[in-house]
Design a protein that fits this description.
The chain is 72% helix and 0% strand. With 111 residues, it is mainly α. The protein is elongated, with a radius of gyration of 18 Å.
């Protein structure tokens, strides 16, 4: 019993130390399965798009291909990483969802 408490305390301490020195480890872990599914679908679509373009070449102009790449990445960044250090990591704030949606609309007008 005491060993499991020590292990949990050590894991928590290690996680805090990791977050202190590695800013990229502060990503969101969603409790809502719908948001997790949405992020997974976006990431898999992004991967499939790049696999297809690596095999067949860009299906559109290079600038459009780059715009699609940047928009996918920025949407994932807004969904996965909190804006501030103190932000909650288990939920998605409305402003991050709004910015991700705005990026989708803005980049789709470029197409």
């Amino acid at each position: 019993m005491s060993q499991s408490k020590n292990t949990e305390a050590l894991d928590q301490e290690q996680q805090e130390l990791l977050e202190k020195y590695d800013s990229e480890s502060r990503f969101r872990v969603f409790l809502n399965n719908r948001i997790t599914l949405l992020v997974t679908i976006i990431a898999v679509t992004f991967s499939l798009y790049h696999l297809i373009t690596a095999f067949t070449g860009p299906p559109v102009y290079v600038l459009v291909h780059r715009a699609l790449h940047v928009s996918f990445v920025l949407v994932l960044v807004f969904l996965l990483f909190p804006a501030t250090k103190g932000a909650a990591r288990n939920r998605l704030p409305w402003y991050d969802m709004l910015l991700a949606f705005y990026l989708c609309l803005q980049r789709s007008t470029y197409l």
